[in-house]
Specification:
The complex is a heterodimer.
Chain A (H helix, E strand, L loop, with lengths): L3 H12 L2 H16 L5 H15 L9 H7 L8 H12 L21 H10 L3 H16 L7 H5 L1 H11 L6 H16 L49 H20 L8 H14 L33 H19 L7 H24 L4 H15 L6 H14 L8 H14 L4 H13 L1 H7 L2 H4 L1 H10 L1 H15 L5 H9 L1 H16 L11 H7 L1 H10 L13 H7 L7 H24 L2 H14 L7 H21 L2 H5 L1 H8 L3 H5 L1 H14 L10 H20 L11 H17 L4 H16 L9 H18 L2 H8 L3 H4 L7 H16 L3
Helix pairs in contact in A: 1-3, 2-3, 2-4, 3-5, 5-6, 9-11, 10-11, 10-13, 11-14, 13-14, 14-16, 15-16, 16-17, 16-18, 17-21, 18-22, 21-22, 21-24, 22-28, 23-28, 23-29, 24-25, 24-28, 28-30, 30-34, 32-34, 34-36, 35-36, 36-38, 36-39, 37-38
Chain B lengths: L1 E8 L13 E6 L4 H4 L8 H30 L11 H7 L1 E7 L9 E8 L2 E7 L5 H18 L8 H4 L1 H11 L10 H16 L1
Antiparallel strand pairs in B: 1-2, 1-5, 3-4, 4-5
Classes of the chains: A mainly alpha, B alpha+beta.
Organism (chain B): Scophthalmus maximus (Turbot)
GO biological process, one term (chain B): double-strand break repair via homologous recombination
InterPro entries (chain B): AP-5_subunit_s1
Chain lengths: 820, 200
Amino acid sequence: MYSHGSESLIKQARDIQEAELKKFYRRLAKLLQGKELGHEAMDSLQRLHLILSATKFTRTLPAELQKGLLPLLSSPVEQLQLLSSAVLRETLPLSGEELNYTQEDVLQLNSHTAALLLSQAGSRADLSSLCAQLLRSLESRQSDGPTHSLMQTLPILNTIITHSPECLTEDHLTLLSKKIVDWLRYASITQGGGASSGGFFTGPRSRQPVPTAELDGTVSGDFFTVLCVGQGFTDDQWMNVYSFSMLRHWLLTYHSVPSGSTIADAANRPQLSFSLSHSHSFSNDDRSEVDGSVVSMVSATSSSSRLLPPKERLREKAFQYCLRLIEQSDRKALKRTDTELQKACLVEAVCILDCVCVEDTSLVYRTFPCVKALFGRLSSDLTFARVLLPIAQFYLNHGEMAAVDCESVWKLVFGRFPAELFNSPFLAHELLRFLRLNLESLQLRVPEYTRSFPNLLKFLAWDSPAVVDDFVDLLPSLVTAETAVELLHTMLDLPCLSATLLLQLRSTCSPISEPGGRGLLSLDAFRSASLRGLFLYLLRTEAGSGDTIDRLSTLHELLAEAADWPRVVQCAQTVPVLLHIFFSAVVMIADEKLSAHLILVMLERSSLLLNIPTYIKEIHRVFSCHLLRLCKLRPSLVVDQSHELLEFAGTTANVYSKDEIYTHVVWALGEYLSVSSDSRCSVRLITSCFEALEAVLFEITSSAPPPGAACPVPRVITTLMSALAKLASRSHDLIPRVSLFLSKLRTVTRGGSVAWCTDEEDLVAIVMRGEELWSLLKTPGVAQSVLTPPPHVTTPQWHRDTNLSMPLQLRTLTSLTHTQ
Amino acid sequence: MVRCFLIHTVCPVSALSAGESRLLFSRVFGPDEGVLTEQHRGLGPEERRLLRREKTAVVARQVRSAVSLSREASGRPPVEAVPGEEALALQEAGSGAVRLRAGDPFPEEMSALWLAVQSLGFTLVCEPHENLPLAEGTLRNLTRHCLEHLHMLGPGSEVLLRSDRVDALLSRLLPHGQLLFLNHRFAQSLEKEVAAYMAK
């Protein structure tokens, strides 16, 4: 597809020399002067476009070439219009030669010139005058004018109001509201393009106009919509399509609730009372006076609508249009593309209904029965999942007001969708966006939300790169005090969930026994009755049935072969990031008990993780960081959990397999196991901690590391030494023991290399630290204040401290009163 | 509204570094948003064009990254379709949506829908309130027409040399970035016009 040819073309275009380029410009300018522009001119224009668009730096065209291009914009040959517009868009307009926005021949404004005008618009004023022109031409349009210029009016206006809604004035808004009402509701209901029901032999006089049809072939019985078909279409039927296509955006821009209204909207309000006295139904271009004789089911209920001001009328007609679309979508379309269109129309209709109900809450009572019926119709069919999301939004916005029970909706959104559709990328994108946009509302009104994280995380487990960004925003809201521990376990096992989802899909697709194939151990385990429970726990849909399972290590063994599956690896890469977010969120709401529980979980899980090479290391790093953070916030935790922490710190194997966490645990013990952190800290506790750490330090510095393990990380050794020194400074009879060890260490290392440290520099660093600590401990009093500083040193109070504040005050007063 | 439509590479290109993507076609719709914001008021048209190009390059890179991760995860071998097998290529094409955060690179949050056919990606950047099912359908339709009318499954470079055809297609099916609710009859009518243009 993308070949060397294309690459070299681009290279040529970028690297073209000045001289050759100038020659090319001159030749092209000459060609454009000719009467007829043939293939050579077209090809040259194409080349010019390629040259201009190949680089990000803008090339300016010589004046004569630009002057030659401008007339092409209104050439009768579309290709020339297109090429000149494309070329001019890629270059700068000549100053003074910019297209005049008040040209009178705007009636002939073709789509491509309009595109150029839009891209060259330099200010809001330019856009405003373009709008004014378009609407002038719309108003004064002859019925036999060019159709294309009419049809592109709405798209151009829509793109302008996206960026600058104030470009339309009051009058414009009124005019357009009326026109849109006409196109939406009163488009002709007969087929255009001269279609007739007559056969070959019928003459022109007996040609009956043929009514439009529905998508299932039956004759339309109500007003024309985008879901009506015919052999050909009339202009106003085309405008029906364009109007509906921009309707939602129009309503969102100009019909929003006062608190979020745009400038035009705010200005619109006083006009309404004024316009009520000018009954708009008397104006000429309002076709509702000539309402067709066709019985319209939807519109029969709103006979009084012609007395409404334009804005309200548009709202009412939009409402009717949507109800009709919903009814039409129930029909079985004959073509597959039309079925897809019906789904898109349902999404749009429900969104527009939501919009108008937000604007006028009295419409909720008229709308809800319809939406409820639609929900009932679609809720059991997962192929309509993307339609059910706007319905859920509607329920969320208006369900409370209408006192409707929304439980079945949430069961679907938080239950079935994540469990069964986790692998559809668009649904995941839309559902997660729905959650993000409505976070506050959901947390308030939908208790199922925070309990549904095992299900929601399936999206993350399946396609981490695509949705991790959404979860960065959503995760904090899923962290609650009751479920925090379970959430932590679930997140640590996310790669396992990823593997399980793959197995689940594989299990449904492939046959029970693959003939001669390499059967997956994990797949067999997934299917076996005895082990299935382990996997089913991971696949659970709701939190609350236990923090984790006992046989987690069995599960990890069964999934060992999944450690190099790409999806599992991608998932594992996102877990550390999300864990940081988890901890940052949990720290805000965790009390003493929960913090203690989390520390224990971290210690326990540090050896209970799926064996993916860098995964374990990364998780350890995250744990270390947050373990420390929790201890810093609540130093008494260390005394509280001293038993478990000591058990961890006293296990020599941990030095080799979990050096990062080990270092931090030891540091925390050294720092916070003191009376100043918690008054329950006894001498006996300090001594037993000391002895445990001392034993480990002896062991790792007296012999070579066990077979298969690398030398202990130097930082572990220095941290152990520092911790011992700190503990000794709090219980002075331990000082001789430390000093003895440190001097022994110095002696041993003087003899040359040691078995437990291979690097010369590291050894020097260790010995130096040992010497510093040894000399510090020679004066116990100093050692105590350095190694166990009182709180007022570690948390300085500045002006609140009586010792510091006096000198500061004096100094300030002196500098203020001294006049030099 | 659709902000832009891009055709870009999603395979490694020798002249570029690993994560980068070569833009073969890029069309930004509507007025330049820089003109109307305080931030960029002082920029001239040249700088605004540069900014526009940089933004589309950012989108292309992000989609490229999403495509390669998605392909890596699915582990399926790529299907090599030949000219004439456009329908197959489209069926086998990977698809997805990338969330572009506010500020990265557009001022508001956007959704970039992508369709990856072999070495090329077709991307539609939509505003978040847009009807995404409709956008997805439109993207598929546009891609099918591009593959057919520009013979993109073959080794040619028509997408570069006949970019006016893509513009013609866009002016009918996505005029100025407006997504259209087209049933098969309306679509047929527009496609006839497109075919007439391509035949010239």
